[in-house]
Design brief:
Blueprint: E1 5-9, H1 22-33, E2 37-43, E3 60-65, H2 91-100, H3 110-121, E4 129-134, H4 138-150, E5 154-158, H5 172-186, E6 191-194, H6 197-207, E7 211-213, E8 238-242, H7 254-262, E9 270-274, H8 281-289, E10 295-297, H9 303-312, E11 315-319, H10 333-340, E12 344-347, H11 353-360, E13 364-366, H12 370-386, H13 396-399, H14 404-419
Parallel strand pairs: 1-2, 1-4, 2-3, 4-5, 5-6, 6-7, 8-9, 8-11, 9-10, 11-12, 12-13
Helix pairs in contact: 3-4, 7-12
GO molecular function, one term: glycosyltransferase activity
Domain Glycosyltransferase subfamily 4-like N-terminal: 21-212
Protein name: Glycosyltransferase
């Protein structure tokens, strides 16, 4: 495939990408390094700044657009959007507001700005292909409108499903509208990309169109300078790091906390560190199982710092929802953990694609049984003592089966075929 002019529509993009959206920046750099001209339409997500560093490549241009109603400069004060003090919107107004926010908060203001920006940049004269990656799924509304207006081919990547997503909970009426909207938008796409095999099958059933599986993966360059054996994060205690998102009542570390409580005096030798909490959920669990002397909760770290922490840790924790709906969900952090080459402890559902990857690669243990986890913790403690304060790295070979470049080759082939339509 010769150089293409790729219009990449994705609100979550460095430096404003959320913790789980490292894939978008890696994909843009992958294309840019191949010689493609990549133009990104992203969003200025204030809560996501500081997690990722800004990307720089001569073949990469980014346009980060605001999300809220008022423009950042020279606009009205926004007084017309505020209710009168003491007033409360009626139920009809509330429902209309919720409908206007479907599928997410990017719909009302960011979508029209994204479409307008593409027109200003030249539309079909400036680009060869539209590629959207969500969530947020409003990105696909913008991409569909751009594809309709320009006639450009459109590939729709769903890192999480829009329709039939087990993590989405709304009022039944709003869910029907949400999924109707998703099915309607999806009809316009020429092809799809999914990140799990279950999502691939679901999208193929929903759309009847071509869907390629391109899993998340880890990037070797992320660990440059971190490959030699680092000093252990804590030479005297077994350090367990959870660097992903905690979803209250779903991705729940209670099995680990129960296991730590079973260790007796050895619990003092265990130190579990979390870099995210949701609504104080972890604090409640810590108090419930009485493990405050072994568990710490910290704010998000910049990704470069998190990678260093993962390399220096003893064990990396992946929490999963103990529900069959989780079978076809693979946390993006799993692949980063694999790249860090530290043992993985996967709690929650003991089946599914994520667990299969852990078991096939001998990357660690996957169980929800606290007694098995306690036994494994004792084994890791002995291994740490024998290793002079550090558990040895996992073998390098199996990890290389899960690099992002291998996954992105599938997308390259799909683009070539779509462009040859």
């Amino acid at each position: 495939m010769g150089p293409q002019r790729i219009l990449f529509i994705t609100p979550n993009f460095p430096p404003y990408a959320q913790a789980g959206a490292a894939r978008t920046g890696a994909l843009a750099l992958h294309w840019a390094r191949q010689g493609h001209k990549v133009t990104v339409i992203g969003a200025r997500i204030g809560t996501a700044s500081g997690i990722h560093t800004e990307l720089d490549h001569p073949n990469l241009a980014t346009h980060m657009l605001p999300i809220d109603k008022s423009e950042p400069q020279g606009s009205q004060s926004g007084a017309d959007t505020k209710a009168t003090p003491g007033s409360k919107p009626g139920k009809l107004k509330r429902w209309l507001w919720l409908a206007r926010q479907m599928p997410d908060r990017f719909r009302a203001n960011w979508v029209p700005r994204a479409v307008q920006k593409v027109i200003e940049l030249g539309g079909d004269e400036a680009f060869d292909l539209v590629y959207s990656s969500g969530p947020p799924h409003s990105v696909h509304i913008a991409a569909g409108q751009i594809a309709s207006a320009t006639g450009l081919p459109w590939i729709c990547e769903q890192r999480d499903l829009w329709v039939d997503n087990p993590y989405i909970e709304r009022h039944p009426f709003l869910t029907r509208y949400y999924e109707w909207q998703g099915r309607r938008v999806q009809r316009r796409a020429d092809a799809f990309v999914a990140v799990t095999d279950g999502a691939r099958q679901t999208l193929a059933r929903q759309t009847g169109k071509r869907v390629e599986l391109a899993r998340n993966g880890w990037v070797e360059s992320d660990f440059e300078g971190l490959t030699p054996l680092p000093e252990p994060l804590d030479p005297g205690r077994l350090t367990i790091i959870h660097a992903g998102l905690i979803y209250a009542e779903r991705r729940d570390p209670k099995a680990l906390f129960e296991a730590i409580a079973m260790l007796g005096e050895d619990r003092r030798k265990v130190r579990a560190i979390f870099y995210h909490d949701e609504y104080g959920f972890l604090d409640q669990r810590i108090a419930e199982y009485g493990v405050s002397d072994s568990v710490e909760v910290h704010d998000f770290l910049p990704r470069s710092e998190v990678l260093a922490v993962e390399r220096a840790a003893d064990v990396l924790l992946m929490c999963r929802w103990p529900d069959p709906a989780e079978d076809h969900v693979i946390p993006g952090k799993l692949f980063e953990y694999i790249g860090a080459r530290r043992p993985i402890l996967a709690t929650g559902l003991e089946s599914g694609e994520a667990v299969q990857i852990v078991r096939d690669g001998n990357f660690g243990i996957a169980t929800q049984d606290p007694s098995r986890i306690a036994e494994q913790l004792r084994s890791w403690l002995a291994l740490k003592d024998a290793g002079g304060g550090r558990i040895p790295d996992l073998p390098e070979g199996p990890a290389h089966a899960y690099t992002r470049d291998k996954s992105f080759v599938v997308i390259d082939e799909l683009i070539e075929q779509v462009m040859g339509r």
